[in-house]
Amino acid sequence: MARTTPPRPLDITEFFPELREHSTTASRLHPRPGAPTVADSSVGGPLLWPADEVWPACDDAGAHEPNDLTTLAAVRRRREILATANAREPLAGGDFLTPEEEAELDAADALDVDDLIEDPIPLVPVAQLHRRDIPDYAGPDGTDLLQVLWCPVDHSDRHYSPRVFLYWRDSSTVGPLLEAPPEPTVISDMYLPVPCVVHPEQIREYQYADLLPGDLRGRLDEWDKDAERRPGYQADLSLAPGWKVGGYANWSLTDPYPMDCAVCGTAMTLTFTAASADWNGTHCSWRPLEEDPDASPDTVEVQIGRGYSLYIFRCPESFDHPPATAMQ
Q: What total number of domains does the chain contain?
């Protein structure tokens, strides 16, 4: 089923025509649980990975933080238990879980795996995106596939978020596939995406207000002061929430700060956004038209910080330069 962002409550450029010079497109991915294959664009799905290429691991042990650690098996089993409980009729006495299920979850919570972060940690697939599916794909010439992976534990040098890796490929040259990629023995329970199919949709975004020219920013601030009577620029008219390719970052957690390449110092470009939810539960104007109003916006079961997004930037001078991230 396609997912469609509702039309904005109004066209903000009718009131602020200058915003047309501070706009760009983004591709909302709208990931939903499913069974993607290695040939599909996906979030959390299997990757088209060459058999002769070593699966990457993060050896940055000194930065690995022991926060909310568990095992892959424990995360998957927890999801199975909760899915079963949600699907059945209430238990006698109104309990949500059986005593056996509660005991199993308690045992998983008691796992002590902190020592495992001292070893290299195989990366976890986060997204695979084909040029054919993603209007805002912007990879190197000769590529048609972006693969996003991350180290699934908090990193102290990444503001306590995952370390991200980007791989660009020509899918036609991959050849024989790696059949069973290694999996991490330890993981934060927040960083294992549910395998999801994606429903890409291109939208238009307008720059975060604090990064606009001073006069325009001031007039938009005045506009937002009257947000009780009309849609707000920040909440409803400028930046879509959720998993995206391209677009602009929302700097609502901190003031904007430079995202410059660590290799060459060039200002970086937003490439990909991993999010805690597909829309904001408070501001539902971004909830797709096809979505049940009672549906949860947490479609991927990833949580960034306290419900934030992880913005992933690339260097426009060289795709070989490492990406940078900002949690907002």
A: 1
